[in-house]
Design brief:
There is one protein chain. The chain is an alpha/beta fold. It has helices at residues 29-33, 90-102, 119-135, 148-153, 170-177, 228-231, 236-242, 259-265, 271-285; strands spanning 2-10, 13-18, 21-27, 43-50, 53-59, 65-66, 71-72, 76-82, 108-112, 139-141, 158-163, 203-207, 210-214. α2 packs across α9 (271-285). β12 (203-207) and β13 form a beta hairpin. It is built from 9 helices and 13 strands. It starts with a strand and ends in a 6-residue tail after the last helix. The mean pLDDT is 91. The structure holds guanosine-5'-triphosphate, magnesium ion and zinc ion. Zinc ion binds at residues 242, 245, 250, 252, 255, 258-260. This is Small ribosomal subunit biogenesis GTPase RsgA. Its cofactor is Zn(2+). Belongs to the TRAFAC class YlqF/YawG GTPase family. RsgA subfamily. Residues 72-219 form the EngC GTPase domain.
Amino acid sequence: MKTGRIIKSISGVYRVDVEGEMYDTKPRGLFRKNKFSPIVGDVVDFEVENVTEGYIQHVHERKNEIKRPPVSNVDHLILVMSAVEPDFSTQLLDRFLVIAHSYHMRPRILITKKDLASIEMQQKVTQLLNVYEDMGYKTQFISINDDIEHVFAQWGDGLAVLSGQSGVGKSTLLNKYFPDLDIETQHISKALNRGRHTTRHVELFERTHGFIADTPGFSALDFDHIQKDELKNYFMEIHEYGESCKFRDCNHINEPKCNVKIEVEQGNITQFRYDHYVQLFNEIANRKERY
Ligand SMILES: Nc1nc2c(ncn2[C@@H]2O[C@H](COP(=O)(O)OP(=O)(O)OP(=O)(O)O)[C@@H](O)[C@H]2O)c(=O)[nH]1
Ligand SMILES: [Mg+2]
Ligand SMILES: [Zn+2]
């Protein structure tokens, strides 16, 4: 029996990395019966016939798990957005942050394409990133011409997952970091309008301090699993100031003696953050439940 980490899964075949040696494996029948699937990131025990025929016997308990795209045991969730093409939007950022927090992770914010942004846009992005730094997020604002080794080194050891909209440059970053890799990337920014991801599956690559995952990114739509009463927990500063509201279960919408509303008025909670909270709250409240 060997133990390794799943780095890729394509049509039912799981590639397992055992200290740099690769094995192609399949889950044993029992998993299928129990409707349990191994996912990329899992640490697994498997039996080996040869390097192309292994059978996964056991999946180690997951430390955490992202549902879409499926990947487990994530140490650093890197939320990638671009300054331009597509344009940086705090509305979209807040939505992605909420999704990350719903998986119980505090993500890092990485903004790309600094070189394409005008000086005004660069200033605007920098100012907004300061707002997020004040909330407790770590942020980086880079372009592909920067020292990517240095960019990655800021995160620390373990599995880092690059996640974010299509076209923000996740695969481009990996290609720069691993010159031999040659992952498919979008050739022209027009491709954005086709509404499809260039990267189709999750794959882990070994980096200096662990692994890094390229993903097709979660889309802004992957929001169905979040209930309106839990949303407030996923805005860090609203969660913190909300502890002082009169009602323990205050949703900070129309409740009396709501401390969150007071802090917005006093400028301790940024207005646009509160507005995005209310927008998302209403979106969830009006959502038609699918069964
Ligand atoms: N000028 C400039 N272009 C960049 C930068 N980063 C990425 N790009 C370009 O942006 C386009 C999209 O990059 P991709 O790496 O394919 O984006 P992705 O995030 O992997 O997209 P999906 O795989 O669809 O999720 C490519 O044409 C890149 O050359 C950057 O820092 N500066
Ligand atoms: Mg990609
Ligand atoms: Zn309140």
